[in-house]
């Protein structure tokens, strides 16, 4: 009697399969100028309606002329930055020269595409100066699609910040303005700050602290500012 | 006579996997679980607390479980989530500590190193979609600096002056943010214990998977100290006024 007791194996259903991704929120932006570039990100890390921490930096110096900012899944973002740092280091020791920003940009694209079928769930932006000393901004999707732009917003408040930048930096749909005009350093910085004050007001995943990196001929300059904590 | 076939309900078996290595198995849901861990920075170091319960679903199954442990001399580890996954990590950490001891180079395993090690283990397991179903809180003093960090089954990591896992994230964290944030260098041990017990009391009142038997632990420059289990004073007088289903 007892020997006939069997329990049917529980099959793995697609609906109870564990999802290996989470969205930790956060916003980043970058604005290029004639001889500088600004890249900024907030430092809040969230999980759903909970704030994990008020200070978890998302923007990192990959070298003394390139900065990366990440949004999306924080664990993947941190690993991606680690991988990029290692590659930048080994390039430096192999070639006795700091990797240029456009080279770093291509490397980031390749690094993301290498994981095409189990992607880093990250929306990175990369900023630095190009070979002519002009400000360069590169944007990506999680699988390595890359584009060079003049300005961009990424992350949880990108839908709020990008139209603001289109208007204030790109002068979109303004007949009198020259859409190719580049901003001066102080104007760009002020617009970056305003963008984040606005994003913090309306996006619950953005806030606490703002880190602004300005990159020019002299190197990388970091500024830390307060944002609203609610 | 058919053979008796018994399979744990939480385990996926892959018949295709080679018999030599056994079936492919993974945690797809936690079974025996521990609830919240509460931790924060204070003047002398880190305070942490967790109760002694390991639940089997809604059954209060094991009532004398240790969820706070020392790792080396200056690190304190708190765990919530699946207890068997925790014991697996404990085994790994014992191996690491033995290696460090065998080195005999006078180097001590610092808190940040333990944190990075556990973070990497958790991220690597999630990347194999075979996670350790836990949230870990790691506290300690590293090079004279207070350190408090968190890792979970997604490999998500962060550092903060106040950290609570599970239900504590909703019930204890607001209390800690109000009472600790910005004051972490002035809170005395006496006040820290009071804050910790306020959090644990609220959790015992409202978390149905909690137990009024808890351990408290601290890390200071003198090292790690984990208390014996003890109970908090509670007052259920308010229950008299509750009629029907709440309000």
UniProtKB/TrEMBL annotation, chain A:
<dbReference type="GO" id="GO:0016787">
    <property type="term" value="F:hydrolase activity"/>
</dbReference>
<comment type="subunit">
    <text>Component of the proteasome complex.</text>
</comment>
<protein>
    <recommendedName>
        <fullName>Proteasome subunit beta</fullName>
    </recommendedName>
</protein>
<dbReference type="InterPro" id="IPR023333">
    <property type="entry name" value="Proteasome_suB-type"/>
</dbReference>
<keyword id="KW-0378">Hydrolase</keyword>
<comment type="function">
    <text>Component of the proteasome, a multicatalytic proteinase complex which is characterized by its ability to cleave peptides with Arg, Phe, Tyr, Leu, and Glu adjacent to the leaving group at neutral or slightly basic pH. The proteasome has an ATP-dependent proteolytic activity.</text>
</comment>
<dbReference type="GO" id="GO:0005737">
    <property type="term" value="C:cytoplasm"/>
</dbReference>
<comment type="subunit">
    <text>The 26S proteasome consists of a 20S proteasome core and two 19S regulatory subunits. The 20S proteasome core is composed of 28 subunits that are arranged in four stacked rings, resulting in a barrel-shaped structure. The two end rings are each formed by seven alpha subunits, and the two central rings are each formed by seven beta subunits. The catalytic chamber with the active sites is on the inside of the barrel.</text>
</comment>
<keyword id="KW-0963">Cytoplasm</keyword>
<dbReference type="Pfam" id="PF00227">
    <property type="entry name" value="Proteasome"/>
</dbReference>
<dbReference type="InterPro" id="IPR029055">
    <property type="entry name" value="Ntn_hydrolases_N"/>
</dbReference>
<keyword id="KW-0647">Proteasome</keyword>
<dbReference type="GO" id="GO:0005634">
    <property type="term" value="C:nucleus"/>
</dbReference>
<dbReference type="InterPro" id="IPR016050">
    <property type="entry name" value="Proteasome_bsu_CS"/>
</dbReference>
<dbReference type="InterPro" id="IPR001353">
    <property type="entry name" value="Proteasome_sua/b"/>
</dbReference>
<dbReference type="GO" id="GO:0051603">
    <property type="term" value="P:proteolysis involved in protein catabolic process"/>
</dbReference>
<dbReference type="GO" id="GO:0019774">
    <property type="term" value="C:proteasome core complex, beta-subunit complex"/>
</dbReference>
<comment type="similarity">
    <text>Belongs to the peptidase T1B family.</text>
</comment>
<keyword id="KW-0539">Nucleus</keyword>
Automatic annotation (TrEMBL), chain B:
<keyword id="KW-0963">Cytoplasm</keyword>
<dbReference type="GO" id="GO:0051603">
    <property type="term" value="P:proteolysis involved in protein catabolic process"/>
</dbReference>
<dbReference type="Pfam" id="PF00227">
    <property type="entry name" value="Proteasome"/>
</dbReference>
<protein>
    <recommendedName>
        <fullName>Proteasome subunit beta</fullName>
    </recommendedName>
</protein>
<dbReference type="InterPro" id="IPR029055">
    <property type="entry name" value="Ntn_hydrolases_N"/>
</dbReference>
<keyword id="KW-0378">Hydrolase</keyword>
<dbReference type="GO" id="GO:0019774">
    <property type="term" value="C:proteasome core complex, beta-subunit complex"/>
</dbReference>
<dbReference type="InterPro" id="IPR001353">
    <property type="entry name" value="Proteasome_sua/b"/>
</dbReference>
<dbReference type="GO" id="GO:0005634">
    <property type="term" value="C:nucleus"/>
</dbReference>
<comment type="function">
    <text>Non-catalytic component of the proteasome.</text>
</comment>
<dbReference type="GO" id="GO:0005737">
    <property type="term" value="C:cytoplasm"/>
</dbReference>
<keyword id="KW-0539">Nucleus</keyword>
<dbReference type="GO" id="GO:0016787">
    <property type="term" value="F:hydrolase activity"/>
</dbReference>
<dbReference type="InterPro" id="IPR016050">
    <property type="entry name" value="Proteasome_bsu_CS"/>
</dbReference>
<keyword id="KW-0647">Proteasome</keyword>
<comment type="similarity">
    <text>Belongs to the peptidase T1B family.</text>
</comment>
<dbReference type="InterPro" id="IPR023333">
    <property type="entry name" value="Proteasome_suB-type"/>
</dbReference>
<dbReference type="InterPro" id="IPR016295">
    <property type="entry name" value="Proteasome_beta4"/>
</dbReference>
């Amino acid at each position: 009697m007892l020997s006939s007791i069997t329990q049917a194996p529980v099959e793995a259903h697609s609906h109870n399969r564990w999802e290996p991704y989470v969205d930790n929120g956060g916003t980043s932006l970058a604005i290029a100028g004639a001889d500088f570039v600004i890249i900024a990100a907030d430092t809040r890390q969230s999980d759903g309606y909970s704030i994990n921490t008020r200070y978890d930096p998302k923007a990192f110096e990959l070298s003394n002329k390139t900065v990366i900012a990440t949004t999306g899944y924080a664990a993947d973002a941190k690993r991606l930055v680690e991988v990029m740092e290692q590659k930048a280091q080994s390039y430096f020791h192999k070639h006795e020269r700091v990797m240029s920003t456009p080279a770093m940009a291509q490397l980031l694209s390749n690094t993301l595409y290498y994981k095409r079928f189990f992607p880093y769930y990250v929306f990175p932006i990369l900023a630095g100066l190009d070979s002519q000393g002009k400000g360069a901004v590169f944007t990506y999707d999680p699988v390595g699609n890359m584009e060079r732009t003049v300005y961009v917003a990424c992350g949880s408040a990108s839908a709020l910040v990008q139209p603001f930048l289109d208007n204030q930096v790109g002068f979109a749909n303004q007949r009198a303005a020259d859409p190719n005009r580049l901003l001066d350093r102080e104007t760009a910085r002020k617009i970056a700050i305003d963008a984040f004050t606005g994003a913090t007001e309306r996006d619950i995943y953005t806030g606490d602290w703002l880190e602004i990196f300005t990159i020019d001929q002299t190197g990388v300059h970091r500024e830390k500012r307060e944002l609203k904590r609610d | 006579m058919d053979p008796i076939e018994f399979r744990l309900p939480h385990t996926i078996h892959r018949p295709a996997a080679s018999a030599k290595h056994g079936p492919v198995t993974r945690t797809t849901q936690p079974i025996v679980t521990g609830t919240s861990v509460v931790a924060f920075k204070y003047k002398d170091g880190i305070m942490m607390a967790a109760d002694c319960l390991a639940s089997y679903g809604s059954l209060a199954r094991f009532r004398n479980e240790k969820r706070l442990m020392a790792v080396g001399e200056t690190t304190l580890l708190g765990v919530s989530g699946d207890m068997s996954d925790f014991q697996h990590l404990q085994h790994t950490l014992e191996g690491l500590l033995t290696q460090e001891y065998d080195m005999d180079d006078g180097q001590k395993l610092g808190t940040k190193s333990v944190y990075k090690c556990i973070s990497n283990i958790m991220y690597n397991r999630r990347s194999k979609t075979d996670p350790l179903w836990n949230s870990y809180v790691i506290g300690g003093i590293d090079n004279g600096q207070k350190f408090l960090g968190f890792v979970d089954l997604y490999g998500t990591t962060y550092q903060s002056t106040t950290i609570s896992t599970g239900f504590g994230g909703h019930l204890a964290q607001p209390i800690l943010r109000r009472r600790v944030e910005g004051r972490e260098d002035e809170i005395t041990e006496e006040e820290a214990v009071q804050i910790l017990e306020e959090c644990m009391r609220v959790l015992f009142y409202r978390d149905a998977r909690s137990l009024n038997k808890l351990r408290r632990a601290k890390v200071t420059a003198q090292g790690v100290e984990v208390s014996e289990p003890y109970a908090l004073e509670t007052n259920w007088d308010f229950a008299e006024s509750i009629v029907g289903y709440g309000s």
